[in-house]
Amino acid sequence: MHPEFQYLNLLQKILDEGSSRMDRTGVGTTALFGAQMRFDLKDSFPLLTTKRVYWKTAFKEILWMLNGGTNIRPLLEQNVHIWSDWPYKKYCDETGFEGSMEDFENRILAEDSFAEKWGDLGPVYGKQWRQWKTEDGQEIDQIADVVHQLKNNPTSRRIIFEGWNVGELDQMALPPCHKTYQFFVDPNTNCLSGMMYQRSVDAFLGLGFNLSNLALVIHLLANQTGLEVGELVWVGADTHIYHNHLEQVKEQMSREPRDWPQIKIHGEPKNVWDYTLDDIEIIGYDPHPPIKAPVAV
């Protein structure tokens, strides 16, 4: 069976068994608690084909996170707009601004001081992954530590990086959804597997990004440490479909999956956060057309 049916079957299960719940956005969801999918990364790369996943946008986002990014300006410079809704809403709420998102983003790009103040998302993913602050004021680079452990202590049960910093949640534009990553090296095969626990899952709009980004992280870490790729394990807690995505979900479920693509990583930068989009090649991606849906903010 095509591995993408795991995802399509999850959508069907949410529709069949999920409970209708109101959420912080006011849109409402149908939700399940606790889901899992597993994909073998050796033969293919998990880019959904029943709708186009804009993998370049997804990869730019995860590379920005790995690099410690917390401001939307570097994303806008790469024509990535997926984080703009939150600072735009904050700016409008606090200043009474009635201009367009485009006007706001243009000011972020044009004005350093404006970008520094209004483009900042707070201590989101990149801050926690690369500069987790300790009680005594030191900073922990969790990504560097993961690479070090994979090279020097690959059978450790503590090869983890974490985004859920309880003391800083209230400062974040959005608390981390994909919060905990753990890695496992099989000494018999020299393969690196990765598991990600996601506390909140937008199953239609976000999960395709999350799967491809987790797969990319596993590939980049394997490339850095001389390991082969193994398995991707994804765990979702509150796994939901927004009520304004129901028709889009049904359209996607009516489509037949196509062959998944391959990925090729070119070169081996000094650090895992030094990769760029030019180092990553996706080969043979032939998805069905995209399906648009609104983001709940």
Spatial sequence of strands, sheet with the most strands: 1-2-8-7-6-5
Per DSSP, the total helix count is 10
| Count of domain modules | 2
Average pLDDT number: 96
CATH topology of the largest domain: Thymidylate Synthase, Chain A
> What is Rg?
19 Å
Helix content class: 25-40%
CATH architecture of the largest domain: 2-Layer Sandwich
**Percentage of β-strand residues:** 15-25%
- List segments where confidence is low: pLDDT < 50 over at least 5 consecutive residues: none
Order of helices and strands: HEEHHHHHHEEHEEEHEHEE
Can you say what the CATH homologous superfamily of the largest domain is?
Thymidylate synthase/dCMP hydroxymethylase domain
The CATH class designation of the largest domain is: Alpha Beta
Biggest β-sheet description:
6 strands, mixed
Number of strands: 10
Principal-axes geometry comes out as globular
Structural class: alpha+beta
